[in-house]
Design goal:
Elements: E1 13-16, H1 25-52, H2 59-88, E2 92-94, H3 95-128, H4 133-136, H5 139-157, H6 159-164, E3 173-174, H7 181-186, H8 193-226, H9 231-260, H10 270-294, H11 297-309
Parallel strand pairs: 1-3
Antiparallel strand pairs: 1-2
Helix pairs in contact: 1-2, 1-10, 2-3, 2-5, 2-10, 3-5, 3-8, 3-9, 8-9, 9-10
Length: 311
């Protein structure tokens, strides 16, 4: 039962109940802790390798660096809260940090889609116009593209706290794992349905927009690859497309199910919603280092050299 208050001033903190039905919270918490540490270490290592090696200061690696940063921030914005709830039993968060967490979580979720989209475009240029690749995508342009995407994402996601802050908060207990837009809106005194519809429309446009851009890029890549005469080049390109497809599925499948399909009649339990949200946060962050970096020849060779030196 949620606790109702007559004014927002009476709300000093939110209490998360998203893990109350978990049978073994300590074990789940340690698994989540291990995954979070893994995400931070692997993505930080990727950023370090790219920044420190001048030979890797190329468009593709700059976009990989941006994606790794997004994954670190996305997991850091949510995982410590969930780990604290499961292992320590600390379930509370005050109003201001909750607003920050909500903004950062949704911003980085959007940036994940933006980052994957621009990387698909990068691969399309590399495969379709290899001779003009470095003239079309210079390092300066790649940095500017990344900055513009971050600014655009921040401007779009700023509407979330802007619509929440004027509202009166009536409930301090939420059935979610951390502060996201849905959990905060449900804690207000207003009818949440119009707000959910507004965000669903915005999210649907962003999801379908980035997903369509990615699909278009890969359709063009497939067309170019089919026309290649070298079988080895075809195999290499298709392997790259297949690897990226795994990342796309890991990110878009849970997000699409949780946000879009539920607005069209799909009914999910709280546990199912939380599981999909957890999957959308950790899934790409765990897989991306393997797909985009550890399978990349240059970074893989650097790892082998480091391991050989440590023997």
């Amino acid at each position: 039962m949620s606790v109702r208050n007559t004014s927002r001033q009476a709300i000093t903190e939110f209490v998360f109940k998203g893990f109350d039905s978990v049978q073994n919270p300590l074990m789940v918490g340690f698994v989540l802790l291990i995954l979070y540490i893994f995400v931070v270490i692997t993505n930080t290592a990727n950023i370090y390798f790219i920044v420190m090696d001048k030979h890797l200061h190329q468009p593709m690696y700059l976009f990989i660096c941006n994606l790794a940063f997004v994954d670190i921030v996305l997991c850091t914005s949510t995982c410590p809260t969930m780990i604290g709830t499961l292992i320590v039993g600390y379930k509370s968060m005050s109003f201001a940090p909750c607003m920050v967490q909500m903004f950062v979580f949704h911003l980085c979720s959007l940036m994940e889609g933006f980052a994957i989209s621009i990387m698909a475009f990068d691969r399309f240029i590399a495969i379709s116009s290899p001779l003009r690749y470095h003239s079309i995508l210079t390092n300066v342009r790649c940095v500017l593209i990344s900055i513009v995407l971050w600014l655009a994402g921040s401007a779009i996601m700023a509407m979330l706290p802007a619509t929440v802050l004027p509202l009166q908060i009536c409930y301090s207990v939420v059935k979610h794992m951390f502060c996201d837009y849905a959990s905060v809106i449900k804690a207000t005194c207003v009818d949440p349905e119009p707000y959910f519809n507004m965000v669903s429309i915005l999210t649907s446009v962003l999801i379908f927009g980035t997903f369509s851009f990615i699909c278009l890029s890969y359709v063009k890549i497939v067309i170019v690859v089919v026309r290649m005469s070298s079988q080895s080049d075809k195999k290499k390109a298709f392997n790259t497309c297949f690897s990226h497809l795994i990342v796309i599925i890991c990110f878009y499948a849970p997000t699409f199910t949780r946000i879009v399909l539920t607005r069209f009649g799909l009914v999910l339990t709280v546990e199912e919603r939380n599981g999909l949200m957890l999957g959308s946060v950790l899934g790409p962050a765990v897989i991306n280092p393997f797909i985009y970096c550890f399978r990349t020849k240059e970074i893989r060779n650097k790892l082998f050299k480091i391991m050989q030196l440590n023997k």
